[in-house]
Amino acid sequence: MEKNVFLFDTNKCVGCMACVAGCTIENGTETLLNWRVVNTHNKIKHPGLPVFHFSLACNHCEDAPCMENCPALAYTRDPKTGAIIHHAEACIGCTYCTWACPYDAPKFNPNTKIVEKCNFCVDRISEGRKPACVEACPVGALDFGQREIRTEDRITPGFVNVGIKPSIVLNPLREAQRKPQIENLDASAISPDQMQAYLPDVPSKISLKKEWTLVLFTLSVAGLVAWQAVGSLYQMPVEPLWFMLLAVMAIVLTSFHVGKKLRMWRFILNLKNSWLSREIFSFSAFLGLSVLSFYTASDMLAYLSVCFGIASIISVDMLYQFLKRKDHMLFHSAMVSITVLLFFAWISGNIILISFISLMKLVLYIGRKVKLHQQKQNILPLFSGLRIVGICLPIVLIFIAPQFSIFTVLSIILVGEIIDRSEFYYESDILTPQSELTKFMEKEIRKQ
C-alpha cells in the first residue's frame, strides 16, 4: 500500500545542510537542536573511502518505537498523513523515547525540559505541499511522495535497519562512487589502526554523568524488594520507618530523571506497551502494599507486595532492551534481577544462596571484563579490582570474622554494586545513525 515517505538519494546529497536550515526556519526550532540532521560517512575525508551523507529526521515508522514505548502516551499517529505527532503538553521529559528511536529523531530540549521532533510538516503535506526540508534541498537529494516501500528500499550500508519499517525510500550509493580513483605515489602508507585513531568520537547518549540517579534508584528498588521478600517469607520484621525513608529516596531519585515533575502521574498511562510504565506502576503498587502490610500485619498483602516487587525488578531489566552493550552480553552481573537475589541472600543469611549468587556474579563480571579487553575497550582496572573485592570480601568475612555486623557487610556489597551498575551505563550505548556510519567506516578501513 502506498503511503507518504521521504525519498533520499545518497548519490546527490552534498551535505550542504540546506534541509536542516529549511526545517529550522519552518518550525522555529533552536539551531543547536535541529530536528533534521545530516550524518556524514568518512568525516576524516580519507581519499580511498567514499564520502557520502544521510539527511535524516523522524522517519515516521510503521512500528514506531517512540510511540509504542512512551509511558505518557505523548505520541499519536495522524491517520490521514501517517505522521507520528509528539504532543508537548503530554510529555514528561523522561527521554525514554530517545533511547528507543534508532534514528535519533526525538530530541530532549534542556530549556523546555521536554522532547521534540520532526512532525512531517503535517500541516504542509495535508495541503498537498512538500515538507520544508524537501523544498529547501537545492540538489534534489531529498524528496517526498507517495510510495509503496519494499524491504530493499531500506537497506543500504550505514543505514540503521532494525525492522520498524521507516517511511523512507533510499537510493544507495552507486558502486562507481564508492572509491574515487586517486593516484598519489608520494603518499605515505597509513595503517588501519592509524586511520581508526583519526575517526571522530561519536558522543554517546548514555553516560554516567546523566544516569547516576538511575544507578542509585535501581539499587534502591532491589534493596527494598529483597528486604520485603525476606520479611514476608521468613517472618522477619521490617522496620517501617527505614523502609519508607529508603522508598522516599528512591522516588526522589527517579524524579531527577524527569523533565516535568508535576506530570509524573502520566508515567503509568501506557501499561499495555511500555516497560517504563510497568516499572513505575508495579513499584508504586509494591510500596503501597508493603506499607499497608506493615500496619495491618496482613500476610496476604505482604505476599502480594512481593509479587509486584518482582514485576518491578523484571521491568527494570527490560527497560534496557534498547541499549547496545560493548561486551554484547545479554546476561551480565549488573542486572537488577541478580542483584535483588544477592541482597535477598545476605539479608536472609542463607549461606548456600549467598555463595551461589556471589559466585555467579563473580563469573559474569570477570567474563564481561575479558570480553571488553578482547575488544580493546577500557576495563577500568582500579574499579574492576574494587568490584571484585566487593564480591569476595563479604564471603571471606562471614567465615573468618562472623562478628562483623550485617550492616558492615551490606555496605561493602553496596559499594561493589554501585561500581558494577555504574560500569553498566559506562559500557552501554544507543544505536544511532552516526554510530552506525562509524561502524561501517571501520569495516571499510579494515579492507584497505
TrEMBL record:
User: Keywords, A to Z?
Assistant: 4Fe-4S, Iron, Iron-sulfur, Membrane, Metal-binding, Transmembrane, Transmembrane helix
Coiled coil is among the record's keywords: no
Q: Does the keyword Glycosyltransferase apply?
A: no
Q: Which PROSITE patterns match?
A: 4FE4S_FER_1, 4FE4S_FER_2
- List residues traversing the bilayer: 214-234, 240-259, 280-297, 303-323, 335-366, 386-415
| Source organism | Ancylomarina longa
GO molecular-function terms, A-Z = 4 iron, 4 sulfur cluster binding; metal ion binding
Pfam families from the xrefs?
A: Fer4_11
- Using the record's annotation, list all stretches that form the 4Fe-4S ferredoxin-type domain: 4-23, 48-80, 82-111
Q: Could you name the domain of life of the organism this protein comes from? A: Bacteria
Q: What is this protein called?
A: 4Fe-4S ferredoxin-type domain-containing protein
